């Protein structure tokens, strides 16, 4: 297919599916995630000039749907819209939110408030990772149950989401593996955050880079189970890259120990031209290799 054909197809798709502020109420007929509460939240984001047009769902999960939309400047954006009425969602997340020190003192009187906090938490986690220099969808804003972020597209094709690495493995598995280790360390040491649900199900491949998505379950480094989560993330990454892609990975415990030692070192943290953190002049991969 030529670039011209792709452009035409996208244009047609956009024309047939776009919802602007005047017809936003019609979204109710398109997908059940658009209930009145969510439509009101969308309208507010449109009035705030965050969103210009809403197209439609590109992916759905247990807790949320991801919608393709466009900002007034013409840039594609992703809306992660959390379901507001899933009993499962409430049961699964309530305890977790209450255990999070950033949200103590918050009185959760109803399910919508709970989901708003969940959405806000994902935004805050995403921001921590983004500010630490991890490649994640750039956080834009949130409102009620809607998280607004950069749309991660496949090979730059508008409205086509980048596939998960489990479906589209990286071309150069060795360097992809190292990149993920680099990101885990940047998140932990600079962002003081642990993804806690890291695996080939939450890493996408744009065709020329890997992006870590879905920061909803992330915990701060001072969380009581932080080390356990960090080890699990490292083990998942090691398992995927060694079993599926035959990369010679570092030992999980050696990586965990290096991460913890470097976190606690208290020394000056620098970054080299490839984005590796230098602590005591060393990269984590130099340290983990000598264990
Ligand atoms: N910023 C984004 N840009 C494009 N697609 C995305 C984006 N965020 C998520 N997706 C797509 O939506 C799916 C679900 O998102 P995710 O954040 O992993 O939610 P869940 O909690 O349902 O796993 C992802 O697997 C991915 O295909
Ligand atoms: Mg996910």
* Low-pLDDT ranges: none
What is the total number of structural domains?
2
* CATH C-level of the largest domain: Alpha Beta
Total count of strands: 11
| Order of secondary-structure elements | HHEEEHHEEHEEEEHHEEH
Mean pLDDT: 89
End-to-end separation: 50 Å
Largest sheet: 5 strands, antiparallel
For the record, what is the CATH homologous superfamily label of the largest domain?
A: Phosphorylase Kinase, domain 1
Largest beta sheet: what is the strand line-up?
1-2-3-5-4
The CATH architecture of the largest domain can be named as: 2-Layer Sandwich
Structural class: alpha+beta
CATH topology group of the largest domain: Phosphorylase Kinase, domain 1
* Relative helix content: 25-40%
List the helices and strands and how they pair.
Layout: H1 3-17, H2 36-47, E1 53-60, E2 64-70, E3 76-82, H3 87-98, H4 111-131, E4 139-143, E5 146-150, H5 173-190, E6 193-194, E7 203-205, E8 210-212, E9 219-220, H6 226-244, H7 252-264, E10 269-271, E11 277-279, H8 284-289
Antiparallel strand pairs: 1-2, 2-3, 3-5, 4-5, 6-9, 7-8, 10-11
Helix pairs in contact: 3-4, 5-6, 6-7
């Amino acid at each position: 297919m030529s670039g011209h054909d792709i452009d035409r197809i996208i244009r047609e798709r956009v024309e047939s599916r776009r919802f602007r502020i005047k017809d936003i109420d019609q979204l109710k007929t398109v997908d059940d995630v658009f209930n009145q509460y969510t439509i009101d939240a969308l309208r507010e984001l449109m009035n705030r000039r965050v969103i210009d047009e809403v197209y439609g769902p590109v992916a759905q999960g247990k807790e949320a749907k991801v919608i393709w939309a466009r900002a007034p400047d013409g840039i594609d954006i992703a809306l992660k819209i959390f379901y507001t009425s899933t009993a499962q969602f409430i049961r699964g997340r309530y305890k977790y939110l209450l255990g999070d020190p950033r949200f103590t003192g918050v009185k959760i009187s109803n399910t919508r408030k709970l989901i708003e906090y969940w959405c806000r938490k994902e935004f805050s986690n995403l921001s921590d990772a983004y500010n630490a220099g991890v490649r994640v969808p750039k956080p834009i804003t949130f409102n009620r149950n809607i998280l607004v972020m950069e749309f991660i597209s496949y090979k730059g094709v508008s409205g086509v989401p980048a596939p998960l690495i489990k479906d589209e493995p990286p071309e150069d598995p060795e360097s992809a593996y190292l990149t993920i280790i680099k990101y885990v360390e940047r998140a932990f040491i600079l962002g003081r955050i642990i993804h806690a649900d890291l695996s080939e199900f939450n890493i996408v491949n744009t065709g020329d880079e890997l992006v870590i998505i879905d920061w909803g379950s992330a915990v701060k480094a001072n969380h009581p189970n932080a080390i356990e989560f960090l080890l699990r993330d490292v083990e998942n990454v090691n398992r995927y890259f060694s079993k599926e892609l035959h990369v010679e990975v570092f030992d999980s415990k050696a990586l965990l120990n290096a991460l913890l030692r470097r976190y606690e070192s208290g020394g000056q943290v620098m970054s080299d031209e490839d984005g590796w953190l230098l602590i005591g002049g060393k990269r984590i991969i130099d340290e983990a290799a000598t264990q």
